[in-house]
Design a protein that fits this description.
alpha+beta, five-stranded antiparallel sheet, single chain
C-alpha cells in the first residue's frame, strides 16, 4: 500500500504504511476529507472524539495540496492543531507522543 483506497493519488510514506501494517495506526479516511487520515488504534473508538488526534497526509507536490503553503503532514483534532510539518517521521513521533500525554 503506497496510497489509500479513497486517495489513490496521494503517496503515503513508508513509516506510516508500516505503522498501519503493524497495527499501530488505523486508516480512518473519509470520502469527504481532502486528504487521507490516520489515528492510533489505541484511540479507536473513543467517546471524546473531539480530543482524538488525527494525522492527515497531503500530496507530495506542494502545488497539489488543498491550501497554499500547506505542510504535507498535519496532526489535528476537531478543535485544535498540534503540528504541521513536512517530516513524516516527526509527524508520526508527535502523534504517538500526543497520545501518551492524553493517557
Amino acid at each position: 500500500m503506497k496510497s489509500t483506497q479513497l486517495f489513490p493519488d496521494i503517496i503515503i510514506p513508508d513509516c506510516i504504511i508500516n505503522a498501519v501494517r503493524s497495527g499501530l495506526l488505523a486508516d480512518i479516511s473519509w470520502e469527504n476529507d481532502e486528504a487521507p487520515s490516520f489515528m492510533l488504534t489505541s484511540d479507536c473508538p473513543r467517546d471524546d472524539d473531539d480530543q482524538i488526534w488525527r494525522l492527515y497526509v497531503d500530496h507530495q507536490n506542494e502545488s497539489e495540496r488543498g491550501m497554499a503553503l500547506a505542510h504535507r503532514y498535519t496532526i489535528s483534532s476537531f478543535s485544535d492543531t498540534l503540528l504541521e510539518t513536512n517530516d513524516a517521521d516527526k509527524a508520526l513521533a508527535s502523534l504517538i507522543a500526543a497520545n501518551k500525554d492524553l493517557s
